[in-house]
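Retro notes, structure queue

What went well: the backlog is down to a handful. What didn't: a couple of records were mislabeled last round, so from now on we paste the full input next to the output in the thread. Example, using ABC-2 type transport system ATP-binding protein from Parafilimonas terrae:
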Amino acid sequence: MANDIIIQTEQLTKRFGDFIAVDHISFDVHKGEIFGFLGANGAGKTTAMRMLCGLSLPTSGKATIAGFDIYKKTEAIKRSIGYMSQKFSLYEDLTVKENIRFYAGIYGMSNKYIKDKTALLLQQLHLEDEADKLVGSLPLGWKQKLAFSVAIFHEPQIVFLDEPTGGVDPVTRREFWNLIYEASAKGITVFVTTHYMDEAEYCNRVSIMVDGRIDALDTPVALKENFSAASMDEVFLQLARKATRNDS
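Corresponding output:
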């Protein structure tokens, strides 16, 4: 399995003054894997993801993303990945079609390719009738699915999703995860942060961050077995209680 590792970190750390936001984390992610990066708000998930995306340099440690060194090849990393931020990442004062074409153009795609793939994408998302509407007028669930589709429009090796289902209803969350499964089936590695513990069940493997550290990493089934838990919520609660006892 070593030859299909697409994300590799070793003792990756991020400090802000005396505060350690990400505390010596080490893990690997395999090509095509859906890797869940779980933890409560403030656990360090977004800070870690920003380092992996080449948006923030680590304080120490090592990492390679799609074969590129996190210190030396940040621009190459950005070209090889897709990214959907925690806050809605498209322009609300542009139309659906304009947003797609704008982001596709950033990656240097030909006009013909953009035109053909835009038509296909609108059909897949059932947004043909909304193509010329401002994104700001769409329901949140449609916006989120569009943002994800734009993030993988250029067929990146990895897509990073930061709390992608925050604020949407359960039905829309499930529909969003169907899009994730489709991307993974095409060989795109999906790295997703979430504080919804039930979403861990949808991942191939999950890591759980507590206070900047990775306190557990395995498949959802194995984690529940190891912690004698009926759900991922119970696993997380046990880890949180353990961290509280250690800090006291």
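Agreed that this is the format going forward. Reviewer comment attached to the example: Helices lie at 45-52, 74-80, 96-106, 111-124, 140-151, 170-185, 220-226, 232-247.
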